[in-house]
């Protein structure tokens, strides 16, 4: 007999589809940032520079909560660039990417509690919360993001501990929550006494999006999660949390249980921020991925595939195939195309939905992939 | 209301003493490897080399379970060098250091179970297990390590889920478990149906020590934990687990919850193993720390402080001060010396014990530190 988490953990369906995807020509499955856009030279130089400047210090054990040098750079520069307001009673805690942040938040808050989540949601990050909750309340999404009216109807009858949301460039739905809904979410959190986990890894490459939900929060009900995976590189495993003092303090202590955030990688990210890399890449990557997304949207429409909300940013578009998406998936793989059948992202429904990603595919591959998909669906 | 772990987590007493220690001249508190011995140039070169050789691949998301390149180097070279036998039904899982390994193991196995542990033990790593157990059975240590007779007496009346042990260069007790006791531990695990977590971070710098407990195991009851923190550098956060297929598979899956192990750092460690750095440093560091330990032992004896088991390896010596160690600690800090009052390492007793570390102090500082301690005790 093992723990509940030990019993219930299983291979992520996204991982499974990605493994199959590796074997095909056209990859519309993977959600990893485009390898062509990883700033290899800058990263290589940053490693050399931090070792030369700081010496052995960059290779000591990490302090729980994160290295002060990185916290300062985020506080001085990165938050400002992203339009994130940090209140005086809030602190930054460095984590090993957003996924680690979610695991720490889940570990801190949850012990068989009721939580609410967008339907669909990104199951991989959500898993840390799911495996520690007793029951999950799914809330519909539309083009303006999470349906706040539906949420309030549910809150009137169900007490929740927290709500998990991806406000920008939603994975897998590709939508952004509108500004007025963001305000409303904070009001609901106040009124019905729950916390909001705002998982916002795409903001650094999202272009013009509404302010973070946490900017509307005055009482510490929003825990903001960010990451350098999209704007720099996922292999560094650096992200952060902003939360009120009590929560950030406790989450720092919980980091003592895994001590997993590489010290030198924190210095490397601090260095890259200091050198102005983020400003530069933020616009460039928004433009780069935006162009690929436009190609996907145009191709789908040209092929008469119209059942989707056109994303304004990010990597993902959620398409209704009107057929079982696993059936379509296996046919697509035979033709050299992969995507992610989106059922696993849904708490309920979603059997005919497909997540298409533009992150690693070239423009030509996107066009060809849509053609393959359209041919399969036409039969 | 938060989770049990969220409620019970508190600042590590070792961290607290270390923070005070930073402000004094002579640091016999810190357990961090000597900064002078971190191979900065080799590490800097390895970062450059892996980026040049593999390109963007080293900066992708890490695969759950670890990068194949590192697993291969450990399997082909590192285990052999350390005298670790891996059975065919066992697998290596890469972690963000040994601490992360312990967190994953705790998360997998424990949900309010009874566990056994050496008294004293290293409270920081043990915390991941402690916070998930209902009750902790302390087992005495002597110069030959964990007292197996006492353990069996307890096993006759108490059912335990697992035993946590540090077999070599024990932290804080400085002892090694004898070979016959290692065999006996495996027999007991079989007979009384429990798992053994063998936390062995010091083996790479331990010189000649008995074979790992896991070498005597034939049925997958031992989970072996290792780390590159002492032999290379802690700031990379790379360690690993060896466990039977079922457990290693599940622990790989649990890594999907935090995805915290830096991809590029795994390639860097693989590169350093391949270049033969480990063989070279293994002997050199054993000699280096051994000389400092000898100075500590000789100084203590010269000053009439004899109540300790002389360590054969590692960083730590556990000294009985015969006075409340916190009282002595505060007086020592006033005189410019720090150590760790060892009470927090004990499940029971230990009020008069002090952990002295030779890892970062110079030979002169060790001699001076013992003189200060002896003066305080003589008063």
Global morphology of chain A: globular
The name of the CATH architecture of the largest domain in chain A is 3-Layer(aba) Sandwich
The arrangement of helices and strands of chain A along the chain is: HHEHHEHEHEEHEHEEEHHHEHEEEH
Order of strands, main sheet of chain A, comes to: 2-9-8-7-6-3-4-5
What's the main sheet of chain A like?
8 strands, mixed
The helix-and-strand class of chain A reads alpha/beta
Radius of gyration of chain A: 20 Å
Kindly give the count of domains of chain A.
2
* Low-confidence parts of chain A: none
Strand content of chain A: 15-25%
State the helical fraction of chain A.
40-55%
Describe the structure.
The structure is a homodimer of 379-residue chains. By secondary structure, chain A is an alpha/beta fold. Chain A folds into two domains: 4-39 and 279-378, Aspartate Aminotransferase, domain 1 (Alpha-Beta Complex); 41-277, Aspartate Aminotransferase, domain 2 (3-Layer(aba) Sandwich). In chain A, 42% of the residues lie in helices and 16% in strands. Chain A has an eight-stranded mixed beta sheet, sandwiched between helices. In chain A, strands 10-13-12 form a three-stranded antiparallel beta sheet. Chain A has a two-stranded parallel ribbon with strand order 1-11. In chain A, helix 5 packs across helix 9 and helix 11 runs parallel beside helix 13. The model of chain A has no long low-confidence stretch (mean pLDDT 96). Chains A and B meet through helix 1, helix 3, helix 5, helix 6 and helix 9 of A and helix 1, helix 3, helix 5, helix 6 and helix 9 of B.
């Amino acid at each position: 007999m093992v723990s509940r988490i030990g019993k219930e953990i299983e291979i992520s369906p996204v991982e499974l589809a990605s493994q199959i995807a590796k074997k095909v020509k056209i990859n519309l499955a993977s959600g990893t940032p485009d390898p062509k856009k990883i700033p290899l030279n800058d990263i290589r130089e940053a490693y050399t520079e931090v070792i030369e400047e700081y010496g052995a210090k960059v290779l000591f054990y990490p302090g729980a909560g994160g290295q002060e040098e990185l916290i300062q750079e985020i506080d001085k520069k990165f938050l400002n660039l992203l339009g994130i307001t940090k209140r005086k009673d809030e602190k930054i805690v460095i984590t090993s990417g957003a996924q680690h942040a979610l695991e720490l938040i889940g570990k801190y808050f949850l012990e068989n509690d009721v939580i609410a989540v967008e339907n669909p949601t990104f199951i991989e990050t959500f898993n840390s919360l799911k495996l520690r909750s007793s029951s999950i309340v799914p809330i519909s999404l539309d083009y303006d993001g999470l349906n706040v009216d539906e949420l309030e109807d549910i809150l009137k009858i169900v007490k929740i501990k927290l709500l998990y949301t991806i406000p920008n460039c939603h994975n897998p739905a590709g939508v952004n929550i509108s500004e007025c809904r963001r305000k409303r979410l904070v009001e609901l959190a106040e009124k019905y006494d729950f916390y909001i986990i705002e998982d916002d890894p795409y903001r650094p490459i999202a272009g013009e999006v509404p302010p973070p939900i946490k900017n509307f929060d005055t009482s510490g009900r929003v825990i903001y999660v960010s990451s350098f995976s999209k704007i720099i590189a996922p292999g560094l495993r650096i992200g952060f949390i902003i939360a009120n003092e009590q929560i950030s303090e406790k989450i720092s202590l919980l980091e003592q249980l895994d001590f997993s955030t590489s010290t030198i990688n924190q210095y490397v990210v601090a260095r890259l921020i200091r050198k102005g890399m983020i400003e530069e890449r933020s616009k460039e990557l928004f433009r780069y991925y935006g162009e690929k997304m436009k190609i996907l949207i145009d191709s789908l429409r040209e092929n008469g595939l119209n059942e989707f909300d056109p994303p304004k940013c990010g990597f993902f578009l959620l398409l209704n195939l009107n057929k079982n998406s696993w059936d379509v998936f296996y046919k697509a793989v035979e033709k050299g195309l992969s995507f992610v059948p989106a059922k696993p992202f849904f708490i309920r429904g979603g059997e005919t939905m497909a997540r298409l990603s533009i992150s690693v595919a070239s423009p030509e591959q996107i066009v060809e992939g849509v053609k393959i998909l359209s041919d399969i669906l036409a039969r």
